[in-house]
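FAQ
Q: What does a multi-component entry look like?
A: The components come first, one per line:
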Amino acid sequence: MPTAKLADLAKTIRSKNAGTDKITFDIIFREKEKYELVKKSGVLTPETICKLYGIERERIADFVEFDPAYAIKFTIYRRRPSGSPGDSDVFGCQQYAPLLDIEVPVE
Amino acid sequence: MVKKPLRFLCPNGHLGFAPIKTESFYLGVETKPDFILADSGSDDIGPGPLGSDTSTSPLEWQRHDLEHMLLAARRLGVPMIIGSAGDTGTNSRVDLYVNIIKELADKHNLPKFKIGYFYSEVSKDYLARKMDKGEVIKGLDGRPNLTRADLEKTDRIVAMAGVHPYIKLLDMGADVIIGGRSSDCVIFAAPAIRAGFPEDLAYYLGKVLECASFCAEPYGGKETVIGTITEKEVLVTAMHPQQRCTVASVAGHAMYERSNPYYEYVLGGMLDMSNCRYEQYDEKTCRITGPKFVPSPEWWVKLEGSGKVGERYVGIAGIRDPYTIKNIDKVIEWARAQVRERFGDEGYELHYHVFGRNGVMGELEPVKEIRSHELCVVVQGIAPTKAMAEEVTMIGTRQMFYARLPEVKGTAGGVAFVLDEVLPASPAYMWTMNHIVRLDDPLELFPTYLTEAGK
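Then the predicted structure of the entire assembly, as tokens:
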């Protein structure tokens, strides 16, 4: 089946702190069709995210399909609070990159 | 009788962090808003500013924004409100902003006006007494409840105010309000609630305005937006000539920096956005209906706490030899072993960030093999004294140079130095508190004061 990269389907793919202990990821689509396509494809689920980032299911605090904004959003617990010694991304804003290349099956 | 709509101008989502763009600000001012408001705080900047009681922004940027806002507000004769003054909202940051407002009033010969302000710092004794009485200070976001040990590790604590001190200061006649640490949305919600608009819409108004133009498109920070509240809706309008507030940009913004797009918790309740409806109202304006504010039966306030971990130095090393790159973990282990030989296993921290491998993402990095032809290693050493932190970092960096790899060809030095020294960095701090505590009164931790400025 032909595929498209998530980066080519979404308008915005970003990550950012949600408070001191969590990082939240937003994947926002411009068109409802692309949003529905990705939502139904199963490429973005708590399980696929755990696999991609190499984390346990307990690390995912929230996973929401947010219809009003055509967006899929998930939030993970940080291993240490933002800005602690050893943290490499104080704002949590560069953790989304692995999402860009996710292959989405398209008809 | 139908209430006259009120219009709120917000030029900046984190006052001071980068200066406001004045073109769209003055386009907004010309429309004669009823309030000029901005949030100045953030916990995104890490625990350092709260712990060390400093701002993360240069004073000149903060003065720049306050000057434009103050002069416009006094000219229009409308209240100006700033929340979470100076990044952290500590008492010293509130005093700093109050003094800047007074200086600006003198500089511009402004007629006399009233400045209202409130503090939000919480003493460790206050929390210790609560704990002695058996009250639980609950952990948020997966944190355990507060322990004595967490409290000991903390240097400074602020509590997140609700609408209450803002409403009180408006009642006291304040023309300008400088707030301590506050939930972002309450800065906007307070005057709307005081004017008699429904809490459901007032809190949403604050939610959508708190980051200024982040709720507009195309992307562009530090531009002005105006929020309008009526008895049945909130309207949000972009002021920058090229920006628009669309259904997509406003609904998308509801998700920003939050774990869940539907709920926002503040002192006194929770804003439920799960039934919000977004509609394009005109070219630059989005209309929102349907938010719901759910008051809480008890007063629970959020606490932020920061504690010093130690003094810190930073070292930088570059690597080009492919064999050394392949064996980077052995190089790091060698350097760590030399630090252990000198200082033992405990009493300091030593962190390696290997850029070109997983320097940005650490354990979350799915790319496991190194694909780069060169690496940059940033070394952080943290210890109780500056001298020890410098030595920990120096050994941890310098000894990468001497790492013993059996097959290495280049035996004159294993890493490249941009600087043959380690650099003093800001002390290391840690967020020690992301908790909530129960209050008897929503003003309990937020004493309010009034002073005057101008002639």
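Q: Is there any commentary attached?
A: Sometimes. For this entry: The mean pLDDT of chain A is 95.
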